[in-house]
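The following record pairs a protein chain with its ligand, adenosine-5'-monophosphate-propyl ester.
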Amino acid sequence: MSDNAQKLYYPPESLAKNAAVPGMEAYQALVKQAETDYEGYWANHARKLLDWKKPFTKVLDESNAPFFKWFDDGELNVSYNCIDRQVNNGLGDKVAIIFEADDGQVTKVTYKDLLSRVSKMANALKSVGVAKGDRVVIYLPMSIEGIVAMQACARIGATHSVVFGGFSAQSLRDRIESSSAAALITSDGQFRGGKALPLKPIADEALAMGGCESIKKVLVVKRTGTEVNMTAGRDVWLNDILAEQPETCEPEWVGAEHPLFLLYTSGSTGKPKGVQHSSGGYLLHAMLTMQYTFDIKPDDVFWCTADIGWVTGHTYIAYGPLACGATQVVFEGVPTYPDAGRFWKMIQNHKVSVFYTAPTAIRSLIKAADANEAVHPDRYDMSSLRILGSVGEPINPAAWEWYYENIGGSRCPIVDTFWQTETGGHMITPLPGATPMVPGSCTLPFPGIQAAVVDETGLEQPWGQGGILVVKRPWPSMIRTVWGDPERFKTSYYPADFQGKYYLAGDGAIRDIDTGYFTITGRIDDVLNVSGHRMGTMEIESALVAHEKVAEAAVVGRPDDTTGEAIVAFVVLKGPRPSEADAPAVIKELSAWVAKEIGPIAKPKDIRFGENLPKTRSGKIMRRLLRQLAKGEEITQDTSTLENPAILDQLKG
Ligand code: PRX
């Protein structure tokens, strides 16, 4: 045992006894199965968990690595697997979705209702000419319609690309252009925190920018009732055309590799990449992780607080819970409206038993509870909870412990799930009835996932020594390619450094010297994680330099108590460096500009101006220095290679 041996938290026996993976022996047995017969392990699960129209005979096809295929000759339909089969299995009257609107109004949708709504939406899409293989961009708030639209695309074999409702016109335009989508589904607006915010006007702006000529129809959901412009021949009110649609729609059977969706995410260079996911392998992992990580049971009420605009909202709202026939809460609003007790009140009211949220939300709710006893979780009855989850960023031990004690009543395991847009589902995570937990560690790989920590040459690191996180074997729910850019897929995820053998996650990790548990140490590329949202520093820099006043910009992250990381921008203006009196106005202008170019989530928290940026004599920006400056640290390192050391004083902030 090392001196710094960590305290372990054990799953309660009552939970472990009935869990899908009941204890570490059961976990090890699964790991062993997967090691002994990798393809057999995944094939067994795929046969057991999914309904196939045409059974697969091939499991993993590595002939065109790293473009792996899983279950390639099998045929299925994802929407059928999520909805029809629940109805066929007698769950038609079970509530699939408990939707709570921003204003608190609750709507319940049964599996039978969902089948009819999805079928109508699928028919509506067909009626406007959307066909199998087309891309459909979905720009909707958290809503029943959002899930229905995703499922409807899956039903007809169209590939959806959901764009988060907080993204700007420019971001929406870029994603439409990149995917050359045939149709766009949006709404007049969205309610958040008691306010009606526009969506359709932003979509109009995006479509007017050029590059979106592929869009033939815009289907508009009426949500806020705000007046919007409707372009004749192009824009249609969904509510109108849905009314005319038949309530049944035969699912389109597709090959297991058929692209279910694209989801754009930030990388270290260039524009966001369209991560392409499959149908069969993706859904398999969505279901398997619902069962093993969340131990989902027929009478559970599951609530994942993510937005459908992110991958978490895909796998653990739109697909996983439905494929398991679960009841889930879907929430339109924000955790702080009408007050910061909203989440706890909803857990109480809907008797949520499995709750999945992000560390950022937890940290901000801790602050709120500390400041105002009225919104403290101990004011609410949350005895229905049995499992808690965390996702999107590292959870700091203090937040973990607060979550464990105050939300979980010290009886609910916390599954700290490490995964990514590219991985489709959980990769490294505790299993609630098996894994002893350590706050801040995502513990051990999901059974069947072969994660490792290696050095730059691909050599596995001994426990206790940090390195690069990789996955050694392809897995069913992995990214298939970067849409329209297979080369970028290869260089980003299967770099030559590891002879193209290992999937590169882009994160650093270290394994505990005693337990072998993984702790994620953060991104090793220029990707930031702000409130669990992933952003490329280059993207923000490009947005800044697109402003007429900006000559040069460099963006770095700095640790932040609430948002995990915060964006700090160092900017050189074309004109003189602004005086202290003038700076606030320019900062405001640039912030608003970034929000308009990318979305409010990309706004820098701190903008500093210099006459130049710290560069080496060869002109390379010294980002390491900028990171230190951003943190307010004294610069102790050698700055003799710096072309212009005086700049450092200007950028101190
Ligand atoms: O850095 C890791 C961090 O989030 C990145 C993936 O971001 P995204 O594709 O947006 O997906 C987020 C939701 C799955 C990872 O590369 N990350 C995600 N989960 C964790 C995490 N870091 C530490 N612990 C986690 N549990």
